[in-house]
Amino acid sequence: MRSARNATRRVLTQSDPQSRIMKNPTDAGFEQDYNAQIAVDQGSLLIVGNALSNHPNDTQEAEPTLQSISSAIGTPNAAALDAGYFGPAT
Q: What is the pLDDT of residues 2-38, one digit of tens each?
């Protein structure tokens, strides 16, 4: 739910207490959100892993997303990440 009150405070919703208020990149507003990530196989373009968090940026998301890939698929030799992932873990 969007409101001026929620935009200035870290208010948890009663219906979804694990979500977090995050900045909306399209209109500079704020929304109660999660941060979703997917891992995609470059050859088949199939989704092979996913991760969901309440972190407002992606700097901590590379490792959990890569760990979500099934061991039956194997560990990727390389990963294509945008600049938002670069932080202490990458």
A: 455 544 555 567 777 788 888 877 877 888 888 999 9
Does residue 79 form part of some domain? no
Is residue 23 located within the same domain as residue 38? Answer: no
Enumerate the β-bridge partners of residue 39: 49
Q: Is residue 1 part of a domain?
A: yes
Whether 89 and 60 have beta carbons less than 8 Å apart is answered as yes
How many structural domains does the chain have? 2
Of the candidates 24, 28, 2, 27, which has an alpha carbon nearest to the alpha carbon of residue 13?
Answer: 2
b/e per residue 59-70 (b: at least 16 CB within 10 A): eebbebbbeebe
Domain that holds residue 48: 34-70
Tens digit of each residue's pLDDT (9 = 90 or more) over 33-83: 889 999 999 999 999 999 999 888 888 899 999 999 999 999 898 888 888
